[in-house]
Specification:
By secondary structure, the chain is an alpha+beta fold. The chain contains 9 helices and 7 strands; from the N terminus they run E-E-E-H-E-H-E-H-H-H-E-H-H-E-H-H. Strand 1 and strand 2 (about 30-35) form a beta hairpin. The termini are far apart. It comes from Heracleum sosnowskyi. This is LRAT domain-containing protein.
Length: about 260
């Protein structure tokens, strides 16, 4: 991979790699985990969510509105009912776009030179076997509800590679794209009071760019303190996916107890 681009060729990737491709003329990128055999596991909004007429302005998915008709792989597009985790072939994942490989364990200086979020992280990756295990487990068990800022396709791939989960559900997730969207307006806002002290537009632009990069770095999972390592088998409990099921069990138990009393 080059200094300015993470673009790679298909024959260069291997099982466990975190790959991505750009959508809508580089407006956003869609991320997934390459599991070998020309297959990718990735996270998209559930089908019933994507059918809504009120779609978000920014959707980091890229597959939800496309019907599958892959002539090469019969299992391309496999997903369990009511799940956003999907298995597709590499070509359907790319949709004629270029292939890029997400970088892990980069130095802070390299991270700050990558102006665009969603391309690298300072966090270290786990072994390819562990990464593939997480991706395939989530294909069978889901990854919760899709959320643009807290639980999107990049969050999915980052979790598969690192096993890190954000503790604070109210803040921004692990996604570099999400932090980029939030960081740009924040940097402009914070630099506004400095405009009076800097008559040069170049000075204002430099300060804004610096604040933007620092805001991105502060939200990177490699330096954040609000992330913990969570085994994929325990993910549903930590994210609260089982809360509704537990409530149903409690209600059924209470009903049974009431029947016994009668």
């Amino acid at each position: 991979m080059g200094i300015l681009s993470n673009r790679v060729e298909k024959e260069e990737i291997k099982g466990g790699d975190h790959i991505y491709t750009y959508r809508a003329v580089f407006a956003y990128s869609h991320h997934g985990i390459y599991v070998g055999g020309n297959k990718v596991v990735h996270f998209t909004p559930k089908k019933e969510e994507s059918s809504s007429t009120e779609a978000p302005l920014i959707t980091f998915d890229g597959m939800s509105d496309i019907p599958f008709s892959c002539p090469t792989y019969p299992d391309c597009g496999f997903r369990l009912p009511n799940s956003g985790v999907v298995l597709t072939c590499l070509d359907c994942f790319l949709r004629n776009g270029s292939l890029y490989c997400f970088e892990y364990g980069v130095s802070p200086s390299i991270f700050l030179t990558r102006v665009r979020g969603g391309t690298c992280t300072t966090a270290a990756s786990d072994s390819p076997q562990t990464v593939i295990h997480r991706a395939m487990y989530l294909l069978q068990n889901g990854f919760g509800n899709y959320d643009v800022f807290q639980n999107n396709c990049e969050d999915f791939a980052l979790y598969c590679r690192t096993g890190l989960l954000t503790v604070d559900r109210l803040g921004v997730g692990r996604s570099g794209q999400a932090s980029t969207v939030i960081g740009a307006p924040l940097a402009a806002l914070l630099s506004s009071p400095l405009k009076l002290l800097m008559p040069s537009p170049v000075g204002v632009a430099t300060v804004t760019a610096g604040l933007y990069c620092m805001s991105r770095y502060a939200t990177d999972i490699g330096v954040r303190t609000d992330v913990i390592k969570v085994a994929v088998e325990d993910l549903a409990v930590n994210l609260g996916w089982l809360e509704s099921d537990e409530e149903v069990l409690e209600e059924n138990k209470a009903s049974d107890e009431q029947i016994v009393k009668l």
